[in-house]
């Protein structure tokens, strides 16, 4: 049993990390297998953050990542004294957060041989924050290891990635994801295969689809949107439906969590009825601001997922147009897909996929969600 067992279909990456852990056990003499800064890249769902966290756990574990001891379990849960796990639920990581992080990272390890810092969304560092991080990576501490995660190399400042050892993770195979769902989550074989295909190998989304019928229903509604677009009016209605669905899901996810966070903060500031200790009201306002930013990101994330689902629909249309219908992702909509394939040309299908991907890029650059989706739906109408 090892912390690396959770990495699905990443044998080469696992081998490199195990070799690095072995080299790191000789403190002060890393050799060629180990370095002070690593950059994990890979598409969404590849497990890049899981790989970084598993590596962090192995570095602070006396047995190199046994996945049983207190060190491993606390590192994975984010509560180990020598492991800093930075994940942002906002739109960016700002310089003040990085400065605080750098200060803590400079401390000597308290119980392990190293202090390990994991930044799950290094692609969300602002320019100022990235430059501040660059300085500390250029002059690393003897006992600090930095683990950065990002979708691609180009998402990270060139000067930072040049000082990190790069590990690229691949999208797990459909077979591997389905096998995980069957063995770990006890999902039926048919549902596991469907979820693995529909998620395109994204482990988290696959589990989400396999365990929540409402999520599957929402996905089916999204896939049927192109069928309801017949004119400009229906295009705008389709866009509103997609955005409203994303907002509803974001609000449902945030409601219980937000209320619990506010209540916990008020208790920490000595809440007695409607009164808070001095400074408490300001802290509550700051938290509410963070929650609003998180909600904004959630809406964008749900829209991005919906756009990916739409891209799979037109991908299936292209397959049918090419005379290949055995590998459809959305085989439950084969009749509708076949009808669409006969109503448009292959070049138009490709153009629609390109417009969907462009909309994803615009959303990632903080374009207004409704305007972006409205523009896309008008393009899909053609």
From TrEMBL:
InterPro entries: DNA_pol_HolB, DNA_Rep/Repair_Clamp_Loader, P-loop_NTPase. This is DNA polymerase III subunit delta. SUPFAM superfamilies: P-loop containing nucleoside triphosphate hydrolases (SSF52540). The lineage of its organism: Bacteria, Bacillati, Actinomycetota, Actinomycetes, Candidatus Nanopelagicales. Pfam families: DNA_pol3_delta2 (PF13177). One of its GO terms (molecular function) is 3'-5' exonuclease activity. One of its GO terms (biological process) is DNA-templated DNA replication.
